[in-house]
Amino acid sequence: MTRKIIIDTDPGQDDAVAILLALASPDDIDVLGITAVAGNVPLPLTSKNARIVCELAGRTDVPVYAGCDAPLSRKLVTAEHVHGKTGLDGPVLPDPTMPLAPGHAVDFIIDTLRNQDPGSVTLCPLGPLTNIARALQQAPDIAGRVQEIVLMGGAYFEVGNITPAAEFNIYVDPEAAEIVFKSGIKLTVMPLDVTHRALVTPHRNDAFRALGHGVGHAVAEMTDFFERFDKEKYGSEGAPLHDPCVIAYLLRPDIFHGRFINVEIETGSDLTLGMTVADWWRVSGRTPNATFMNDVDADAFFDLLTERLARL
């Protein structure tokens, strides 16, 4: 059965690969729309990059909406040091010709959830959770209509990648994350604990390049670009592909493993702001609210990714 989703994103090379994976899987996933949020780079670039990726995939039929340009109550923190000044540094891709869809991303999320059958739409946030939290604030009734939220964000055993304690997406807007994690919606979380196991090794990147078309070449160039930063930082053999884990989970949930536990968001501490406090050992007595993943079959993940990208 085809799963209806909204991708909420701040592209970012790994976001781009996640969008491509979804658009390459129309028998399994119906992308109702893409909503852009400020995160890896500011909103004008994330909303532009989402359209660049749709055009790369030949899917100009998918509407792209611009959303929130700043966190709920904080100054925007961006990640050009990872993704380059455009957010999609690496390949040379033309500017998009498709326009932004009219209206605000938050209104699109609300209207879509109200107009589709209850429990039929999955939200897939790949960046800071500002748009999702704002929608829940403006329209509390939609919480009961969401099938599931599958998000990339957080960390526990892998600790932080933007501060010693926090993962970037949660750190940028911890108040938004707190709203989402306390919403009562079914949550599945792809933290750094999973994504740092999905490394683009030279062999895996060669497989993208060997696809022999524009998408494969662009993906290889994107990962070539941002892996330089990650290899130096982590001493790993390649860069983690964070965001595609969200879409891969929708296609092959069997290759991921985790636990249904309580996860709280730290919003008050200067030291650990944005930390996802995951009760992995179930010692807090707090009610579980999220399936927090900690492992993935990386070979199966990259086989899936390469096979689907070949279809574009």
How do the helices and strands line up, and which of them pair or pack?
Blueprint: E1 3-9, H1 13-23, E2 29-36, H2 43-56, E3 64-66, H3 80-83, H4 105-115, E4 121-125, H5 130-138, E5 146-152, H6 168-172, H7 174-181, E6 187-190, H8 192-195, E7 199-200, H9 202-209, H10 214-234, E8 239-240, H11 244-251, E9 256-261, E10 263-265, E11 276-278, E12 290-296, H12 298-309
Parallel strand pairs: 1-2, 1-4, 2-3, 4-5, 5-6, 6-12
Antiparallel strand pairs: 7-8, 9-12, 10-11
Helix pairs in contact: 1-2, 1-10, 1-11, 4-5, 5-7, 9-10
Structure description:
The chain has 312 residues and is an alpha/beta fold. The chain has a single domain, classed as Inosine-uridine Nucleoside N-ribohydrolase, Chain A. 37% of the residues lie in helices and 18% in strands. Strands 3-2-1-4-5-6-12-9 form an 8-stranded mixed beta sheet, with helices on both faces. A two-stranded antiparallel ribbon has the order 7-8. Helix 1 links the parallel strand 1 and strand 2. The longest helix has 21 residues.
Radius of gyration: 18 Å
In whole angstroms, how far apart are the ends? 21 Å
* DSSP strand tally: 12
**Stretches with pLDDT under 50, minimum 5 residues:** none
Structural class: alpha/beta
